[in-house]
Amino acid sequence: QGQEKLSCNPRKENGTHVVLCELGNPMKAGSWISVDMELSVSGLEDMGDAITFHLLLRSKNSPSHSNASVTVTVPVEAEAEMELRGNSLPATTVLPTSWQWVEGSRRLEDHGIKVEHVYELHNKGPSTVSGVTLSLAVPHLLGDNVLLYLLELGTEGGVNCSHHPALNPAQV
């Protein structure tokens, strides 16, 4: 009939997190109670696809000590929004019309003007992420001609990278 707040106390029993809630003391025989609970659980990143709660209702009334139990499985869905930011240094590059690529040269300036592309992948949350794959396609050929000479690829922050076979083919 009325709504009351429950008094609940978290504790740990045998390596399991337990929340004990007192529903009423004493209760009249034949009483019916409906309980809605909202649980906030952290650290679910490595829990898999679901988390299971075991709910147990115990009566301390004598002579009946009935225990009713139910298992509730709740799906876990992690959500994270990723954002890719990019920048080129310099922002604009103009190649001279007289410039020619020098076949077989090991001098950096014979392969073009240096342009550095920086990409940052940000997790905007709310969950953490792992096992993210970023595939970046860079056009390096225009027909049979070299469009961009891919010199090197660097990473920061413990990122693993696989290099493209066209990376620094002349070993400049």
From TrEMBL:
One of its GO terms (biological process) is angiogenesis. The keyword Transport does not apply. Residues 83-171 form the Integrin alpha third immunoglobulin-like domain. GO terms for cellular component: external side of plasma membrane; integrin complex. SUPFAM superfamilies: Integrin domains. Pfam families: Integrin_A_Ig_2, Integrin_A_Ig_3. Its main location: membrane. This is ITA2B protein. PANTHER family: INTEGRIN ALPHA, INTEGRIN ALPHA-IIB. It is a single-pass type I membrane protein. Keywords: Glycoprotein, Integrin, Membrane. One of its GO terms (molecular function) is integrin binding. Residues 3-76 form the Integrin alpha second immunoglobulin-like domain. It is found in: Membrane. Coiled coil: none annotated. InterPro entries: Integrin_alpha_Ig-like_2, Integrin_alpha_Ig-like_3, Integrin_dom_sf. It comes from the Eukaryota.
